[in-house]
Design brief:
By secondary structure, the protein is mostly helical. Helix content is 40%, strand content 9%. The chain folds into two domains: 62 residues, Muramoyl-pentapeptide Carboxypeptidase, domain 1; 70 residues, Muramoyl-pentapeptide Carboxypeptidase, domain 1 (Orthogonal Bundle), CATH 1.10.101. The two termini are 18 Å apart.
Length: 164
């Protein structure tokens, strides 16, 4: 894969002899993000690294500093330190957040919903209060998810897969 590319594994189903069977549930298909990439996925990765204690600037640019912090995180998690965020790294990097939580993982959700999904009045405060709860529930309803207001693995996956 060329530097800077972001891709999403596309096959959620496989056709075999006229039958369609699920190859992998959607929650297991994550975008692959590497050095040179730019955008909302990178910003989310940077916020999540900060939440996990691997401090990096949040600028949406997957440069050498972000690559180094991703590798540090991967080593800490006993993952091959490739510096690439994909199917193995995303599930360990995300942080489940819900009403009342605070921090950079909440900022990641707020920033992503604001920039990529049109929730332009949602402030990026890092506080998961009523306005964030309403935005998350609206997002979940829009994408056919369980509307519980909790940003867990399935909601995180949908956020980062559907739109950069």
């Amino acid at each position: 894969m060329a530097a800077g590319t972001t891709t999403v594994a596309a096959s959620a189903a496989v056709a075999t002899r006229g039958h369609v069977t699920a190859a992998r549930p959607m929650a297991e298909i994550w975008p692959v993000v590497s050095q040179g990439a730019r955008g909302n996925r990178v910003r989310a990765i940077q916020y999540l690294l900060n939440q996990r204690g691997f401090t990096v600037g949040v600028d949406g640019d997957f440069g050498p500093a972000t690559t180094a912090k991703v590798k540090d995180f991967q080593r800490n998690q006993h993952i091959d330190p490739t510096g690439i965020v994909g199917d193995v790294t995303w599930p360990r990097l995300i942080v489940t957040v819900h009403h009342g939580d605070r921090g950079d993982a909440v900022r990641a959700v707020q920033d992503y919903l604001r920039r990529a999904y049109g929730f332009t009045s949602l402030p990026v405060t890092g506080n998961f209060l009523d306005q964030t709860l309403a935005a998350v529930k609206t997002f979940q309803a829009r994408y056919g998810l369980e509307v519980d207001g909790i940003v867990g693995p399935i909601t995180w996956n949908t956020i980062v897969v559907k739109h950069d």
